[in-house]
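Subject: sequence -> structure tokens, single chain

Hey, anyone have a minute? Need the predicted structure for the following. Not urgent.
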Amino acid sequence: MVILSADGVAQCYVDNDWICGRYWSDYRPELVDATIEHLWLTVVSVLIGLVVAVPLALLARRSPRIESGVIGATTIVYTIPSLALFSLLLPFTGLSPTTVIIGLALYSLTILVRNVLAGLLAVPDEVVESARGVGYSNTRLLTRVELPLALPVIMAGLRVATVSTVALVTIGAIVSYGGLGNLLLQAVGNQFKAQIFAASLLGVVLAVVLDLVLVLVQRLLTPWTRHAR
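Reply:
Had a minute. Here:
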């Protein structure tokens, strides 16, 4: 039951409560839209980051010197404050989702490149030599042997990058594309506690759901890891 004040306003609005059931019904369209935007910004950013991370990791494993350069470059990008990074992108991408996606994809590289590289380097040398011995080309060796065996480590990095990106998407609010971050930015200014709580809770739920989805995907893609236990 919703308790109303004398002027018909829900009492939780008047008291500015953190938990307000009426808020969830009154602002459902805004919450749904913000969550959907948050989701697709996260997914697109991480997928682009993964697509870029794989060739970078392949390049990095050629020599320790190249590895240091690639890892160092991705680490430097991660240390750039988001406001500065978005400002650098704005002249080229404008106030658009592209600005946020590129920025988040760049941030994800520091995690993804390291894990893809670690997974590839963990493939046993004898397995690689056996594959070459039966005539596998470099491309077939990579797609049929190395990447499948590296997949558990890659998926671990993908999970970390995804959860991290869910949190970082909120920063996109500074260019008006931050998903749930837009609601947080609006609510912090006027201390609208119900909105702060709702946006924060949905962000946590989204991160947990995406992590569980990736765990399921990993189990489907690596059935041999289940049989080995």
